[in-house]
Prior knowledge:
single chain, Rossmann fold, eight-stranded mixed beta sheet, two-stranded antiparallel sheet, globular
Amino acid sequence: MSIRHQAALAKKYIRYYLTAGNRHDVHSPFIFTLVEEVLNKKGFRPAYEPMELLRTRLLQSNDVVQVTDLGAGSLMGASNTRRVSEIARHAAKPAKFGQLFYRLVQHLGAKNVLELGTSLGLSTAYMASAGATVHTIEGCPNIAALARMNFSSLGLDNIRQHTGNFDTELAGVLQQMPNPDIVYIDGNHREEPTVRYFEECLPFLRPDSIVIFDDVHWTEGMERAWDAVKSHPSVTTTIDLFFIGIAFISPDFKAKQHFTIKF
């Protein structure tokens, strides 16, 4: 990330932090409960410990891996060497988001999760540890292999890994897995593919499914993608947490509502 990009992102975050609401600004009973019982329950749980011990090991790792990056900022399939510790530091979602995903799975009673972008598997492991079967797609075979070892070390057998470009893998995964309760789009980070993956998933979603988008303010393109999701006819409610956005397609919401919540 360039210094200019960092500065622009920091400026956006300050604006978000100063203007975002809290549970008192939410008038929907469902969203109020979600904020109160899920977003604000940030205390540490024993169930989080295995993932955070794994994170510590990854951050201390001296291993290197050849990475094929198919997402934004990549060389479109060019390989390069990266330290595992560097991937854990810059690509893995911070602990508070993995723990949020754990609580979301439990709160929603989610049985099946689809994740686009496994990386080292920390977020995957959080959702699987909460009881969901997670189908996760990773574009880089070497990163997928590392994630497989991480899942094995955690004793998780409810994760189904798929390796390949989202463009070629997503359709088949959607066909073979049960209808997802949660879709987590955490990969590519470009406007057109993000919206396209969302629309490809829509026919397979349940009425109470949610779709989580990573880095919705990362670039102007991702902000346009998030705006497209918010205005999509199938989306009834959204929650903007700055680093992620959550979209609901539930028909129980009779009018579109968009919340920006401090997290």
